[in-house]
Amino acid sequence: MTAWHSIRLVAAREIKERGRSKPFLITSVITALLVIGIIVLPGFFSDDTETYQIGSVGSGNRQIIQTAVALGNANDEEDAPPSIEIEEVEFSTREQAEEALADGDVDVVLVDGTELIVER
Q1: What burial class does residue 83 get, using C-beta atoms within 10 Å of its C-beta: 0-12 exposed, 13-18 middle, 19+ buried?
Q2: 81, 47 contact by CB (below 8 A)
Q3: What's the CATH fold of domain 50-118?
Q4: Mean pLDDT of all residues in the chain?
Q5: CB neighbourhood size of 61 (10 A)
Q6: For 25-47, b where at least 16 C-beta lie within 10 A, e where not — what string?
Q7: Are 89 and 56 in contact, with CB atoms under 8 Å apart?
Q8: Which residues are 111's β-sheet partners?
């Protein structure tokens, strides 16, 4: 009898013996249900759409934002909810936009379609 055969024989016996005990069966079923729940349930309770707030100052920003949304959702399935949404928050001055960025009211600020300001 080889070592591997002995190991397999002992392992099979242990599994049979443990499988006969009620506590082992109950904990095995509970563990399996928990693992399945952890994997499956989050998909039912999340909308899977990330929403970003972009501050906008000046003109020329709308086309860039629309392109960003299109690129962010390019791999989405046809009937699925979008992966990202971008809400544009307009500011009349750069200073107001930078203050909102510092306060965490927006994620980034786009200025005149040529400059992107991010918080470090």
Answers
A1: middle
A2: yes
A3: D-Maltodextrin-Binding Protein; domain 2 (3.40.190)
A4: 87
A5: 20
A6: eeeeeeeeeeeeeeeeeeeeeee
A7: yes
A8: 57, 115
All structural domains of the chain with their residue ranges: 3-45, 50-118
Tokens, residue 62:
């709308």
pLDDT per position as a tens digit, 38-56: 877 766 666 678 889 999 9
Count of positions (residues) in the chain: 120
Scanning the chain, the segments in alpha helix (DSSP H) are 3-19, 22-45, 62-72, 94-103
Q: Which tokens hold the place of 44?
A: 């039912």
Q: Give pLDDT, residue 88.
A: 93
pTM of the model: 0.57
Tokens of 1: 């009898």
